UniProtKB/TrEMBL annotation:
PROSITE patterns: PROTEIN_KINASE_ATP (PS00107), PROTEIN_KINASE_DOM (PS50011)
Protein name: Protein kinase domain-containing protein
A GO cellular-component term linked to this record: plasma membrane
Location(s) in or outside the cell: Cell membrane
Length: 254
C-alpha cells in the first residue's frame, strides 16, 4: 500500500526449538520469510529462547472496490514452483485477468512470493466487499474542528446581533425619554410664558387692599418664595404671593 503501509495480521507463535526458517517455511507454509521474521522481531536467528514469543506478521488483502465489489474475503497464497497464473485460475475457477488485477506486477510462475486470491466463506460463497462507513481519524478530526468553528462563529454572530439590538433599544428608549422630557419642559415654559404675558398687573396698594393688608386670615398657603393670600380682584378669585421673586415658579406651584 502507499506510504509504506500494508494490510496484515500478526500471529504470536510460541517457540519450542524452532528457528526463523523453520517457522516461516514449515509452520506457516511460506506465508512469511525467515528474513521478514528477523526484521520484525528482536531475537537474533541463533538466540531464540525456548518458550519465547515470535511475532509472525502475514500480509493480507481486503479487496478493492475499484476492481470489484463482489469479493471481500481473500486468501494469502504462497506461490510454489509448479504454480502459474493459469493453473491457479483453473483451481479457483476465477478469471486470470481478475487475478492479475488483484496482484498487479506479480509473476505467478516465479515459484515464491505471495498472491491474494478471492476466497469463499464457510458456506462456499464469495463474500461481497463491505462498504466502509467509517472515516479516517484525520478526516473526522478535520470535520469536527470545522463544525465547532462554524458553531462558534454562528454563536458569535448571534451575540453581536442580540447585543446590537439591545443597544439600539436602549438608545431608542433613552432618546425617547429625553425627547418626551424636552417636550414637557417646553410645554411648561410655554405655559408659564403665556400665563405671564396674559397675567394682569396690580399695584401694591390694590393687592394690600384686596387682602386686608395681607391679613393672616386670608393666607391660604406658603410657597418656596413667599406666602400666598386669597383675594378677589375685579370680581375674580385670585391667589397672591407676598415677596414675589420668581413668577415662573409661582405659576408652576399654582
Amino acid at each position: 500500500m502507499n506510504d509504506g503501509e500494508f494490510l496484515c495480521h500478526t500471529f504470536q507463535y510460541s517457540v519450542t526449538r524452532d528457528d526463523y526458517s523453520a517457522i516461516a517455511n514449515g509452520t506457516f507454509s511460506n506465508l512469511v520469510t525467515a528474513e521478514w521474521l528477523q526484521n520484525t522481531n528482536s531475537y537474533s536467528q541463533d538466540a531464540i529462547p525456548a518458550g519465547g514469543k515470535v511475532n509472525v506478521t502475514v500480509n493480507c488483502s481486503c479487496g478493492d472496490s475499484n476492481i470489484s465489489k463482489h469479493y471481500g474475503l481473500f486468501i494469502t497464497y504462497p506461490l510454489k514452483p509448479e504454480d502459474s497464473l493459469q493453473s491457479i485460475a483453473n483451481q479457483t475457477k476465477l478469471d486470470p485477468e481478475l487475478l492479475m488485477k488483484y496482484n498487479p506486477g506479480v509473476n505467478f510462475s516465479k515459484g515464491s512470493g505471495l498472491v491474494y486470491i478471492p476466497g469463499r466463506d464457510e458456506n462456499g460463497n464469495y463474500a461481497p466487499l463491505r462498504p466502509r462507513t467509517g472515516l479516517p481519524g484525520k478526516v473526522v478530526a478535520g470535520i469536527s474542528v470545522g463544525v465547532v468553528a462554524v458553531l462558534l462563529l454562528l454563536a458569535f454572530c448571534v451575540c453581536i446581533k442580540c447585543c446590537g439590538r439591545k443597544k439600539k433599544n436602549l438608545r431608542t428608549e433613552y432618546f425617547g425619554r429625553n425627547i418626551a422630557r424636552a417636550r414637557e419642559d417646553k410645554a411648561s415654559d410655554s405655559f408659564v410664558n403665556t400665563s405671564i404675558e396674559k397675567s394682569a398687573e396690580f399695584s401694591y396698594e390694590e393687592l394690600a387692599h384686596a387682602t386686608s393688608n395681607f391679613n393672616l386670615a386670608n393666607k391660604i398657603g406658603q410657597g418656596g418664595f413667599g406666602e400666598i393670600y386669597y383675594a378677589e380682584l375685579n370680581g375674580k378669585k385670585a391667589a397672591k404671593k407676598m415677596d414675589m421673586k420668581a413668577s415662573k415658579e409661582f405659576l408652576a406651584e399654582l
